[in-house]
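seq:
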Amino acid sequence: MNLKRIRAIAWKEFIQIKRDPRSLALSLGIPVFLLLIFGFGLSLDIDRVRTIVWNQDASSKVTRDFLLNFKYSKYFHVVAYTDNYDDIQHRIDSGQAMLALVIPKDFSHFLEAGKAAPLQLIVDGSDANTATIAMNYVRSVVYGYNVQLLSRMLLSRGIAPRAQVEARPRIWYNMGLTSTWFIVPGVIAMIIMIVSALVTSLCVAREWERGTMEQLIATPVKAPELVIGKFIPYFCIGFFDLIVGVLMARFLFGVPFRGNYLTLALMSSLFLTGALSQGIYISVVARTQLMASQLASLTTLIPTLLLSGFIYPIFNMPKAVQAITYFVPARYYIIILRELFLKAGGLAVMWDEALFLFLFAVLMFTFAIRRFKKKVV
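struct:
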């Protein structure tokens, strides 16, 4: 291979990118847009559940004290108080409330008599996941209240509370359980995979559609030199997108970075090489920009979004689907990013993910070079 010819092809591609503002906007603008949308718009945290209360025992101090546990909890937001079921149904149907607490009129009498007091809980089950979490929040508040109530009753009778197990959880790596810290590294991986494959999938197809490929075929440039020359500019753009993503994660979303930046650059280069090579391979196979963009979206967007562990945990998927995820490169890169951002992991921890990314990059690069032929047909 001749370095001068590779440099000439790379410089030609830089000029082509500069003359095509749409491709440049796609490469530089979409990463920022996606990070803002996913970083601010997508959250797995569920708090301030809109709650409506019907307290039929409002004259009792016991019930008022009980409701204070919901009023001052960050997980609930009491939007209204009511005195009938029709209002509850209207507010839940209209989306004004998701949860309703109905306290019966004999609530305080049951408690004072040492009996179990009923509490009616009405939940909007149209969103099953959120409804389940909301009910668990209620159970947690009720359990805490029961423990306090039992302790007060025993002490009032001069009986010391029995010893009990007290769980003291300690959360590592993400003490506040902030979902943004979990989401943003995955968004960076998704951006690099999608943008890199999508943009490079058009580079060779564009040459065929514009009729300039015949001119390149007539030159002494060899197939590997042409592929490498087209690879270099997009690698620079992809790495720039990575830098922008890391800076936004650190200073806009406040995600800590506890790993090594050199390790990040090395792992990202492997992943970027594989993603770009996949895009070039798609471009060589498709030969039309429309087909190339569709294939790139199908082979990168859907697997990265659904099968990489970006949002949905892989261990919760069916076994057959879990087997498919092993062939999704973004799965391994997301693990690496979360290790570097949150756990300060090194190569000793991530060597198997790094090995797969290396194999993926070598295979895709080899496929792209072997598939491209200097022939018109």
